[in-house]
Amino acid sequence: MNIVLPLRQHVGAPCQPKVSVGDVVKRGQLIAVPQGLGANIHASVHGKVQEVTDEVIVISPQADQPDEYVKISATDNMLEAIEEAGVVGAGGAGFPAHIKLKAELPTGCVIINGAECEPLLAHNLLLMEDDPGVVVRGAKYMMEITKAPKAYIAVKAKYKKAVRALKRAAALEKGIEIAYLPDIYPSGDERVVVRELLGVELEPGQLPLEADAVVQNVETVKHIVNAIEKRKPFIDKDLTVAGRVKEGKKGKVFLDVPLGEPVGKYIEMAGGYVKPYGEITLGGPFTGSAGKEDSPVVKTLGGVLVSMPFPQESRKIGLLACECGAQEPRLREIAEAMGAEVVAEEKCKRMVEVNGRYRCDKPGECPGQAETVMKMKKKGMQVLLTGSCGD
Asked: Which UniProt keywords apply (predicted)?
C-alpha cells in the first residue's frame, strides 16, 4: 500500500517537491514547499520515494513504522512554528493558518468553530468531548498571537457532552467563552458563525477580519497546538467514516490517520460495505465530491461516506445550484450517476457573483424558488435536483 501525497492540499498553487525518486524519507520530513500561497508538505511515514510528478509524491512505506517523527525547528515564534508545520484549515477550506493568524485584533476576538454542521461527521465533536483542553489551549495561543482579548468556542447547544467538557476546561480561563450556534446547516460557515456570535452581517466575499475576528476549525486548532507544543508537522488527519458501512449508523471516527493513505483502508476498518452501496463521497453530504477506494487522505478531508446507489431517473432534470448545498459541477456529477438528462440549470436567487465565484448572500436563510423553478419547467424540466441549506 503506497502513500500518495498530492502537492496541492491547500489554497494556492501546488508545492514544489524537495525529494527525488529513490530517496529514503522519515515521517515528518519536509518533502515539498509552497511556491507563493500554500503550505509545507511533510512525509507521513518512513519509507522510500517511488514517484514524483507535478501533482503527487508517492512513498512506499517501510514495514515497521516507529512512532517518532522529524520535528520542526525549535522556535519561540508561534507563527513560525505553525507555518513550518504546514497547518491549513482542516475543515475543508485549506487556507494556510499562519497567514490567517497574522492579524492583530486588540479590540477583536478569535473564534473556534466547533459547529460540526455537516451531517454524519463526528470527529470534531469527539475531539471536543474527549480532549477539550487542546481546544482551550489553542484558543489561548490564538489570543496571544493576534493580541485578541476574547475567544469564543462556538458549538451547537445540542452537543451537550461537548458543551459540558468545554465549560469545565475553560472554567478558569480569562476571556474564553462557550458560545452557541443554531442547529441548522450551514451553521459552520464562517459568515454564519460571525453573524450568530457577533451580530455582524458579512457581505459575500467579506472575511471575518471585517468583523475584527479570526475563525479556525476545531481540528485546525489541534494542529496549531501540536505545532507549538510538540513541534509536530501536519502529517495526520482525523476522519469520520459513515453511511453504508457496517459501523456506519453513527459513523466511526479515526484519529491521527497518516496523510496519503487510501480511504478504502478505513472503509474496511469501519466494517466494510453494507450492500447495496453506491458512491464513496469525500467530505460531507453537502460539500463532498465523488471519490474512489484509492483516493488519498489529505489535509482537508474530514469525511468518507458510502452512499446508497443513486436512483435511476428517466425524467428530464433541472439543476438548482446553491453555494451551501451543491453547485453545478456536483449536481451534474450526481445527475450523470442517475443516468438523467439535464435540460436546465439555474442558481438560487441568493447567489451573487464575487470575483468570478458565486456566493450565497445569506447562508442558512433559504428563499422561495417558485420563479426559478417555473423558468426551468419552460425548458422541459420534469424533476428538480438541488442541495439546499436551512434545516
From this structure: 4Fe-4S, Electron transport, Iron, Iron-sulfur, Metal-binding, Repeat, Transport
Per-residue pLDDT tens over the stretch 314-370: 999 999 998 888 889 999 999 999 999 999 999 998 889 988 888 888 888 888 889
Q: How far apart are the first and last CA of the chain?
A: 41
> 95 φ, ψ to 5°?
-80, 135
Q: CB 20: neighbour CB atoms within 10 A?
A: 9
For residue 100, give the C-alpha cell: 490567517
Model's pTM, two decimal places?
Answer: 0.95
Q: Are 94 and 135 in contact (CB under 8 A)?
A: no
Distance CA 129, CA 162 (A): 4
CB atoms near residue 294 (< 10 Å): 12
Q: What is the rounded distance in angstroms from the CA atom of residue 187 to the CA atom of residue 144?
A: 26
| Rg (alpha carbons) of the chain, rounded to whole number | 21
Euclidean distance between CA atoms 83 and 101, whole angstroms: 10
Query: Which residues is 58 bridged to in the sheet?
Result: 4, 51
What does the DSSP assignment read for 307-371?
PPPPPP--SEEEEEEBTTTB-HHHHHHHHHHTTPEEEEEEE-TTEEEETTEEEESSTT-PPP-HH
**Could you tell me if 127 and 159 are in contact, meaning their C-beta atoms sit under 8 angstroms apart?**
no
What is the DSSP pairing of strand 316-321 with strand 341-347? Answer: parallel
Distance CA 331, CA 333 (A): 5
- DSSP β-bridge partners for residue 56: 6
DSSP-assigned letter for residue 297: P
Q: Residues 135, 217: contact at Cβ < 8 Å?
A: no
